[in-house]
Amino acid sequence: MASRRRERKPEWLRMRPPSGERFASIKRTLRERDLNTVCEEANCPNLGDCWSGRNGPGTATFMLLGDRCSRGCNFCDVATGGMEPLDPDEPANVAAAVAEIGLEYVVLTSVDRDDLEDGGSAHFAETIREIKRRDPSILVETLIPDFQGDPDDVRRIVDAGPDVIAHNVETVDRLQWPVRDRRAGYEQSLSVLEQVAAEADAYAKTSLMLGVGEYDHEVYQTLSDLREVGVDIVTFGQYLQPSRSHLEVFEYVHPDTFDVWKRVAEEEFGFVYCASGPLVRSSFKAGEFFVEAVLREGKSVEEARAVAERREATAE
Length: 316
Description:
The protein is of the alpha/beta class. It has a single domain (15-315), classed as TIM Barrel, CATH 3.20.20. It is 40% helix and 13% strand. The chain has twelve helices and nine strands. The strands form two sheets. The protein has a seven-stranded parallel beta sheet, sandwiched between helices. Strands 2-3 form a two-stranded parallel ribbon. Strand 5 (139-143), helix 6 and strand 6 form a beta-alpha-beta unit. The radius of gyration is 18 Å and the shape is globular. The two termini are 36 Å apart. The mean pLDDT is 85.
């Protein structure tokens, strides 16, 4: 990709620092139980809003399987290498923290653990089950690795019964490298999402970063590919460089462009839902959407998909 002159962040990317009693309480609970969140590890710009519940039900994204990843993606700020054994108490500790904080919607993600035979899928699945055992009404979204494309590992997540299963393609086909680690790949990610859509009684979800050098026609093709394999939900957000050693931002995409992609995704391609904006991240407003628009109203996955299909037909 062509290098570009470093630009000053535009006004729409200015963020207020997290604060407040609820934020402090959540952080204290996480430290007491020695838990990791991708909110902190990835320096998410929406940490304050999600933890405080200012924009809907409180949401937090717990990062399982340790705080070090076996891969080194050029967009990600999570540390790489030096893998440690899994904490057998983590599933119970996460479930206890969820109950203590009083979360209605929980997002579970993890580092990649290519060093483990099952990629950590059994540990991941046990955490889902532990949360549901304590309170079946809690909505659980999982953002899973590709597990090197192993269908048995993906199936362990499906069988644990989360409400949403996400796996991120991150960017368009052409830019998988240098954006992602070479062990990841576009087709591999599509195969994971296709299995989720086919086997799970849950929503299949993915996310793309904009501003890494993609062309509009490539984003359009990606949306087509995602719908082809049955993905229900897609989110778009602006890539922000975590440090000078990471991939440079190619472009700061204007909010109007994000609005266009939301309309294209929902009205032209028939996605059940699209969250799209410069500060949107893969779990951004996840709880707000599902609690208010789908799951709390008792709509099934099939009913929500039918609504999206009617919306797509009307647009045509």
